[in-house]
Amino acid sequence: MSESTYTVTGMTCSHCADAITQEITAISGVEKVDVEVEAGRVTVFSDGPLSAEDMRAALSEAGDYELVGA
Known about the structure:
By secondary structure, the protein is α+β, with helices and mostly antiparallel strands. The chain has helices at about 15-25, 50-60; strands spanning about 1-10, 30-35, 40-45, 65-70.
């Protein structure tokens, strides 16, 4: 299992965390998503590494969130 941590801007509440979790979980191979709103951190557990493009697409679908540094 692969574990990747991302910095995400634009998260302010539990609704943000829920929306992001739902969209990232829909990516093939993703098994678990942990969102830390206050820290601006999203940790993804998956079968293998995810592409930055897949993460950006999922964050865009979830709302006005941006992947930092990837």
